[in-house]
Structures are given as structure tokens and as C-alpha cells.
Amino acid sequence: MPLRDLIDRYGGKALRYSAVSAVGVTVTQVLIVVFYKGLDWKAWVANFAAVTISSGPAYLLNRQWVWGKNDEHSVTREVLPFWGMSLLGLLLSTGGVAIVSNYTDATIAVSATNIAAFGVLWVGKFLILEHVLFRGEHVSVAAAEPFVAPDPSDITTRDDA
Fold first, then answer.
1. Residue ranges of the alpha helices (H) in 3-42?
2. Cα–Cα nearest to 122, from 33, 3, 18, 40
3. Residue 94: pLDDT band by 50, 70, 90 thresholds?
């Protein structure tokens, strides 16, 4: 599929997915710093808790905002598979964090390992969410109605009224 077709098919959804991912990464990283540096938890425990806490909002934001699903949640078709992917990322990141923490206690190294582990799964997770879990409907970017700014001469002010 040519790049233009991919952008047309997934562009808006991919941007929203990226935004949700940015929120998830931010929440996870703040929690890792609080738990690891602030509360002096072991690196793997801090990572486990941070990922577990941030997965719930990530599911809800992806489901409703990215894929526009507002109906009942399917535990077997949506919730469990989403948590399964989160668990895979959790296992990968926790294992990486445990290994890295044997060589350094730098918070930045723990955070970077977490981000790298989830980054590996990021594209695959999008494709699974799109084609399996939430089965997105594709609205062409070209078919979407463009935003048209109002004509400044049509705008009235209090002085005009």
C-alpha cells in the first residue's frame, strides 16, 4: 500500500493513538520517578505499579477517543486482550528494568528502559487494536469535511450590535 494511502486511511487515528500514547508514557514516567526515586521502591516494583496504574486510562482513551467506541465493553473481546498486550509490555519492560537496575541506579536508565520496551510493541499494538479489538471504520482524510474559517466581515462585535 502506498504511503499516501496509509496516511489517508490511518492518519487521524494514528495521531490520536500517538497522543494517547504520549499521555500514557507521561503518566507512567511520573509514577516511575515517584515510586523509584521518591518512595525508594525497587526498580521492577516501581515499573510494575506504574504500568498497572496507567493501563486503565490508556484503554479507556484508546477505546473512546481513538476508535470512537461508546457502547458496552466486551471483556473477552476487548478488555482482556488489551490487558494482555499491556501485560506483555509490562513483562518486557519489567525484565529490562530489572536487568538495567543491576548495572545502574540512575532513574533515567530505568525510565529509558521502560520507554524502549513499550516502543518495541507500539506499532504492533496499534495494528491489533485497529484490526482485531476495536475494528476501526476507515474514514478517508480526503472525505472528511474541512474546517472553514468564518469570513471576518461576517463577525459582529458588541460595538456593531
1. 3-32
2. 18
3. confident
